[in-house]
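Pair request: fold both.
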Amino acid sequence: MPLERDLEDVIEAEPDVLGEPVLLIGRQVPTAHGGFVDLLAVDEEGGLRVLELKRDRGAREVIAQALDYASWAATLSHTQILKLFADYRGGDTTFEAAFEERFGTSAPEELNAAHRVTIVAARLDEATERIVGYLADLGVPVNAVSFHYYEDDDRRYLARTWLRDEAESVPAPRVGKSATREPWNGIDWYSAMGEEDGTRSWDDARRFGFISAGGGKWYSQGLRRPRPGQRINLHIPKLGYVGIGEVCGEPTRFAEAVLGDGTVRLAEQQLVGRYRHTGDENDPDVAEYVLPVRWLKTVDRAEAVWDRGMFALQLPICRLTNATTLAILNNRFFPESVTP
């Protein structure tokens, strides 16, 4: 690697040379102010990384340009970041799937809550070290890294040296007005139904039309958030999504729940789940609560819908904002509505 410009190719091909995992989302990314960011990436926390190569430019020029690019990148919304990734990868995979493959965990709901700037060089001159060090001492999230190339017979080596300890660098909090989360469509909710301890069962929920939560006020109070006519996307942890339905009533305690045409008292049915918790069942903070749902489409556990990168959390209820997950669910549950 005799030329400094080759560093961009090396980092794109093998981002791990930076010393920490990042997911590249763009190369030579055009900004809104006429410049081009050499490399743009996100880290495991969803923070944005602006990587600018020095390429034998003066310290003042490259640092000023990097900070200019960072001021633009700091305003990128969740949706804009997903579009940049889609443009960069050409649609060969989703951001969520690539994130999970890269980091071994689901993509965070919030992207670009913070950002960092990295100056990349074959060598760091005194002026670059001085200016970057000064800015870092002031709290600016900037660092510099140099790479040294060695050959030993038929072996080649690339040695990395950070100007500051990267583990101690503090990313800058987001500035600007763009949303760091994907916008909610105002309709879709996510619900996780845990079956492991026998408290609940998908068989019961599917047959009688409901979701439930309880064992503490924190778990059950969320059932009051969805309104009639909004959708529930039900997920069974470690399996996948098994049902999509419309909310058709208000939550009530299990002991008082009446479903269907208003004559089916849930507590009097032969059920698989217990729907009871340790403690006084008369205590409204402990009781299991039931939210009536009219299922639009359901599947057996063996046919649960799950793809890499889909949204999943151990939460009784929350807004489902992940556009990739919603698109997959629509394609799999309602293929007849998908435009060819």
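--- second member of the pair ---
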Amino acid sequence: MTETQDTQETGNGGPSRRALIGWGGAGLALGAAVAGGAVAAADAGGDADPAGDGMGAAVDFHGIHQAGIATAVQDRLHFAAFDVKTDDRDAFVRMLKEWTAAAHRMTGGKAVGDGAYGGLPEAPPDDTGEALGLKPSRLTLTIGFGPSLFEKFGLHGKRPEALVDLPQFAGDNLDKSRSGGDLCVQACADDPQVAVHAIRNLARIGFGTVAIRWSQLGFGKTSSTTPNAQTPRNLLGFKDGTRNIAGTETDRLKKYVWVGDGDGPAWMTGGSYLVARRIRMNIETWDRTSLQEQEDVFGRDKREGAPVGKAHEHDKPFLKAMKPDAHVRLAHPDSNHGITILRRGYSFTDGTDGLGRLDAGLFFLAYQRDPREGFIPLQRKLSAHDALNEYIQHVGSAVFAIPPGVRDSGDWWGRTLFTEEA
């Protein structure tokens, strides 16, 4: 949570029925209709549902940009990073097409392929079935490609310069088993079972081609892309992400989030870059810290989220009134030459660590136009000076190139990377 940028202000499957009757490739011919609720977003890859209150609705899978970035933030997360287990490029592309077809169906509230029952009794069903009867719950699925993917399939020359390996930051204690990955899928939904179902089915479809490297469940969104919604609180009890970029702020999205023409390889135009960090909070230490010190650490009061000396959360902060190492002061764009990122973080609790301490914190997700101009310089500063560092530690890390959206029923995840046509 160091990067709260408060501110911006800031299985084992065997051959499936798909293999037996070949539904996967044909899945790309699916129509654009979605079941189980009204489409909540349209033109900009799921940027809408601005009120964020269509709890059972569907978010349009197709668009210029992928849904799940500027889309109104859902309540639950299942994030998975995958390793590629094949050197067969055609097999990998075939999987991406099958994933796209499955993702389109699941985000529309439909079962994968021919469903969870009624098929060949000798073969596993196409869908695992735990989401039967559930609404779409605004499910979004967002794919990304990690730096290591570009060492495979002859993709060396297509790696964007902006997709840099993240440097080691002061205080990092990264677990390699919770870091990196050839590709990722971010599943967000208002129902945790819907999000878990999505990742489970993609992993099943990808069996033998990819395998999950690590994953993270999240709850209690810690940021919002809907300015009319109440700012969420993190597990330290403070409002997080005040003045985060809103899904309706097309100018700010264009400036800070979406990759533009000429920013890099043409296949990334309309995409973005994602930094994911698992940040553990020293909950027990924080809970024994005085209220005054807690507020000094953040530079905001705990009740309203107002900056020091102000009455309301959204009052313009007077940064010099805060302590020099206050989180808000250090993270604010005015202290960082205007650096702005879009945050979609989630709280997590993963039991205890064996010593009775809660393994809990923030799964930080930040989208930006270029990590070299966004997360990296910001985190260098925060890791060196932020008073919050006494109470947190970064224990997992990954960076991914997020390709543009799936335009229509003939398109598929990663097409612009794996074909010559953009």
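Observation on the second member. The first strand starts at residue 76 and ends at 84.
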